């Protein structure tokens, strides 16, 4: 079920009313409702996928319990291994089987050996990368003694399948989300109202920004060979805004919906395009995944400890694995590799933590230097997004080559057609710039803005969804 | 208490939203009405239909005619238009109505009549022309598209206001096209041409006969017209079957109605924008010829048989 669909517009109020008015007296019953609602939400795509999530939940629940009863290190290692094999096995099979097979076949063919293997027609279960990482975090935390395993199977199943963040994150840690299923949730008016604002802003970013940008980005990337350099720059720009609007929009909706049910999820995006260097960008983009890799991969393999060689290796490992997490294609690996190349010099100069505050904190405008830094960082990300979006690495290289020709100085042929979308992008950037200290762009301090102004803004934003929304597109991150 | 306050707030927000929609719905109808549907007193010929007539008949060189054809207009919209136009313009005595191989096929129910994006966009334009029966039909068939159409009304009302009221473009008008994509359209046709189901839509047949009856009872001469079509299309076996079906339908149901069949009208390739639609050059040649044919007494001798 898509957040920007009529189905969800009916589903959400029904679950909300049942949750707070019918099943509010008992936490377990409330959790059962959440599990049923989440499975209904997920099964709406394809009920067969439910088997996977149920099996994965059962395995990790059992492994957690067994870990609590086992002291022998060897047995504990085996239990952790079992969870890793099952979860990563599913992920590997559904997401990467064909990729590895095709690459093996190509490699053998290159060396003159023809091996007769054919790829399978595998449907990728929606959001498998997200819930797999979420359940893994539980098992690893239990294994490391950071978390007590739960005996409450309903809470655990609700934690794994919690519908607002099930298919595209934020990838929650068990340490944050699971305990919230044990406690009685209280409806907090201010939280719910702010949640609604966050949902509205998320929908605006998805429907008005991302879906419109998608139209232009798709056409430009499909026909890049025949277009001018300036048009290709806009193509990359539209994709950058599409993926931001799409994914941060989804996260805002997910967090907003969770708040309606009394849950607090972690912030997943913190206005990343206002970053002054690539290290800051990665602290602000897809925070739940970056911190997941930091805690469960980067630090265990040594992090920033050790010699220069080891540090560089670790950075490349985390970025390349992160790229590969996004999809079974060399383009994602190239995207990760490029980001590692951006990051390594900053890390070696020990400047990767100089921008931990918000840009131009307490001021309206940034300094010229900060603006320059923001623009350079944005340009670097644009270049990387070309690899992310292009169908192959060769296409990405050709796209970039075609961009840097004299035609980059020409006026794009379709500029007029883009004007309305560019206007909305400018509007979004302005609102987010002035709200960059907040958790989301529509978070207002009570009484700071006149009520009529706020309500008019909400109604206009709501209408813009219907008036200027692009053709409905799937959320990009569903495929990951 | 908090949760009730929250729900009240949500309902209030939805209320404001719906209120804006309702006000826009009536305001939109008011604006459409305000501008009226009055034609010049000398304009007695009305041209209705889809993109075929929209691109083929240039009413600027045919002084006593008005072309209100609109792309993807089904007969239900033509029926609404003729009813209102006749009511406001009693001088209308002739209706030219697009009538070709595709108009009544069931396939077009989904592609045109009940296509969500068409219902949505046409709903706001034709609100004022719709009877309760039409409204009920669309609401029953495509409730979501109707709802989306209503949601878009405030935007449309603002546009209308900025333009100073409705222009004939909204109801339909002759489209001046200087495109020439004939080669591409032939290539596409040869690649994708499939045999459509040779069945006629019940709904569209009803609407079509309602137009015929309306013309009969209001003293309007109904002239069915098929505009020029490229020979590659006409010589295709699958299309031939569709035309045979059309001729059968015509001969068994519409003996007293004149059918101006210009499908085979000779034009050069440069007069087409694609296989089924003329560009401005073709439209000029065709309209000049049509004006001569429509002259009194000429129709019968030329087309009746």
Automatic annotation (TrEMBL), chain A:
GO terms for biological process: alginic acid biosynthetic process. It comes from the Bacteria. It is found in: Cell membrane. One of its GO terms (molecular function) is acyltransferase activity. The chain crosses the membrane at residues 6-22, 50-67, 79-97, 117-140, 332-350, 371-388, 415-434, 455-471. Keywords: Acyltransferase, Cell membrane, Membrane, Transferase, Transmembrane, Transmembrane helix. GO terms for cellular component: plasma membrane. It is a multi-pass membrane protein. Belongs to the membrane-bound acyltransferase family. This is MBOAT family protein.
Automatic annotation (TrEMBL), chain B:
It comes from the Bacteria. The chain crosses the membrane at residues 12-32. The keyword Transmembrane applies. Keywords: Membrane, Transmembrane, Transmembrane helix. This is SGNH/GDSL hydrolase family protein. It comes from Flagellimonas allohymeniacidonis.
């Amino acid at each position: 079920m898509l957040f920007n669909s009529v189905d969800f517009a009916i589903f959400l109020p029904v679950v909300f009313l049942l949750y707070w008015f019918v099943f509010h007296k008992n936490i377990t019953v409330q959790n059962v409702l959440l599990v049923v609602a989440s499975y209904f939400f997920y099964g709406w795509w394809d009920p067969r996928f439910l088997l996977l999530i149920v099996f994965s939940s059962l395995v990790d629940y059992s492994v957690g319990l067994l870990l609590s009863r086992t002291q022998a290190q060897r047995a504990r290692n085996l239990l952790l291994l079992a969870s890793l094999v099952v979860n990563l096995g599913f992920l590997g099979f559904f997401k990467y089987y064909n990729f590895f097979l095709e690459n093996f076949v190509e490699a053998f063919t290159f060396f003159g050996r023809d091996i007769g293997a054919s790829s399978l027609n595998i449907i990728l279960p929606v959001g498998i990368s997200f819930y797999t990482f979420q359940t893994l975090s539980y098992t690893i935390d239990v294994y490391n003694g950071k978390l007590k395993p739960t005996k409450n199977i309903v809470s655990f199943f609700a934690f794994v399948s919690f519908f607002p963040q099930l298919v595209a994150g934020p990838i929650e840690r068990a340490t944050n989300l699971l305990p919230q299923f044990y406690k009685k949730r209280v409806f907090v008016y201010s939280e719910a109202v702010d949640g609604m604002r966050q949902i509205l802003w998320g929908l605006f970013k998805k429907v008005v920004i991302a879906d419109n940008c998608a139209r232009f980005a798709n056409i430009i990337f499909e026909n890049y060979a025949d277009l001018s350099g300036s048009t290709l720059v806009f193509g990359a720009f539209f994709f950058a805004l599409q993926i931001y609007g799409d994914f941060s929009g989804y996260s805002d909706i997910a967090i907003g919906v969770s708040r309606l049910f009394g849950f607090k999820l972690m912030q997943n995006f913190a206005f990343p395009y206002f970053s002054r260097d690539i290290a800051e960008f990665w602290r602000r983009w897809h925070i739940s995944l970056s911190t997941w890799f930091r805690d469960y991969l980067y630090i265990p393999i040594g992090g920033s400890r050790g010699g220069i060689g080891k540090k560089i290796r670790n950075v490349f490992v985390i970025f390349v694995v992160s790229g590969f997490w996004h999809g079974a294609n060399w383009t994602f690996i190239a995207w990760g590799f490029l980001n590692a190349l951006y990051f390594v010099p900053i890390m070696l100069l020990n400047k990767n933590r100089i921008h931990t505050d918000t840009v131009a904190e307490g001021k309206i405008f940034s300094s010229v230097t900060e603006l320059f830094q923001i623009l350079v960082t944005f340009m670097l990300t644009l270049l990387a997004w070309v690899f992310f979006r292009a169908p192959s690495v060769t296409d990405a290289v050709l796209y970039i080559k075609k961009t840097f020709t004299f035609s980059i100085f020409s006026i794009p042929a379709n500029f007029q057609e883009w004007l309305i979308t560019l206007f909305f992008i400018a509007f979004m950037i302005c609102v987010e710039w002035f709200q960059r200290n907040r958790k989301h762009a529509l978070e207002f301090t009570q009484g700071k803005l006149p009520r009529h102004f706020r309500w008019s803004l909400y109604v206009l934003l709501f209408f813009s969804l219907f008036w200027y929304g692009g053709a409905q597109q799937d959320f990009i991150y569903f495929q990951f | 208490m908090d949760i009730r306050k929250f729900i009240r707030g949500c309902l209030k927000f939805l209320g404001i939203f719906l209120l804006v929609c309702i006000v826009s719905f009536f305001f939109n109808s008011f604006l459409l009405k305000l501008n009226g549907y009055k034609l010049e007193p000398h304009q007695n010929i009305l041209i209705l239909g889809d993109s075929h007539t929209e691109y083929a008949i240039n009413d600027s060189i045919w002084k006593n005619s008005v072309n209100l054809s609109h792309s993807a207009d089904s007969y239900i919209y033509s029926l609404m238009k003729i009813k209102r136009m006749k009511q406001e313009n009693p001088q209308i005595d002739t209706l030219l109505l697009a009538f070709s191989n595709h108009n009544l096929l069931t396939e077009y129910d989904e592609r045109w009549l009940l296509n969500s994006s068409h219902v949505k966009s046409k709903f706001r334009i034709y609100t004022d022309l719709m009877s309760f029966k039409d409204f009920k039909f669309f609401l029953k068939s495509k409730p979501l598209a109707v709802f989306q159409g209503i949601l878009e009304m405030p935007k449309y009302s603002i546009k209308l206001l900025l333009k100073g009221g409705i222009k004939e473009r909204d109801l339909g008008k002759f489209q001046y096209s200087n495109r020439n994509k004939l080669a591409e359209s032939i290539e596409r046709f040869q690649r994708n041409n499939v045999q459509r189901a040779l069945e006629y839509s019940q709904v569209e047949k009803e609407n079509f006969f309602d137009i015929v009856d309306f013309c009969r009872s209001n003293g309007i001469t109904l002239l069915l017209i098929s505009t020029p079509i490229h020979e590659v299309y006409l010589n295709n076996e699958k299309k031939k079957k569709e035309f045979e079906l059309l001729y059968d339908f015509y001969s068994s149901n519409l003996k007293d109605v004149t059918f101006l069949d210009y499908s085979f009208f000779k034009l050069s390739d440069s007069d087409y924008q694609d296989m089924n639609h003329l560009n401005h050059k073709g439209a000029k040649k065709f309209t000049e010829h049509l004006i001569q044919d429509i002259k009194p007494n000429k129709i019968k001798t030329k087309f009746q048989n």
